[in-house]
Input
Amino acid sequence: MMSAQTRNRIAAAIALSAAPALAACGEEPEELPVIEQIVVREPGQPIAAAVTGGGAADLVAAGEAAFSLCSSCHVAEPGQPSAAGPNLHSVVGREAGALDDFAYSDALTASGITWDAAQLDRFLTDPSAAVPGTSMAAGAVADADRRAAIIAYLASLGQ
Ligand code: HEC
Output
């Protein structure tokens, strides 16, 4: 019988090995990076919060690729005007609804959320369930590891 820790190690290793495949989506497959780190995470803890070192770089790369799910509405470069959604540069650590150049829903502005990994994970799982009345009508990400990668990417852009 596997211990919970072993299961978590395996789950994290699978997530890290899946990351380069995501990053390579649509490109010629490159030589796959070797997994050099096994990450132990507590049940329920996002992988992004548990990863350090080389594995984190893979996760960020996977998140950057997966951000294509968001980029129809969101930019993430510093100083760029918000588009159909608010600019997500430095969103980690920011209060919800904080940008002056975006007309947020009252629901999001009044939510009292400060975006950390856990809040982002909750919001991206199901925006309307996390913030009833939000105007973010698309962009839910069902896959937990993909959410973790996107959050790691957003966190890598600075706080
Ligand atoms: C169809 C357009 C659309 C897509 C696709 C989309 N979003 Fe959004 N997003 C919005 C809108 C509109 C808002 C503002 C919501 C509100 O005011 O209630 C928003 C708000 C947010 C916020 C809150 C930002 C703040 O300043 O408080 C985050 C975080 C966010 N989106 C992340 C994402 C991520 C990550 C993805 C991709 C997985 C994504 N969104 C996909 C339209 C979109």
Notes: Residues 4-156 form a domain with the Cytochrome Bc1 Complex; Chain D, domain 2 fold (CATH 1.10.760.10). Confidence is low (pLDDT under 50) at residues 10-25, 34-38.
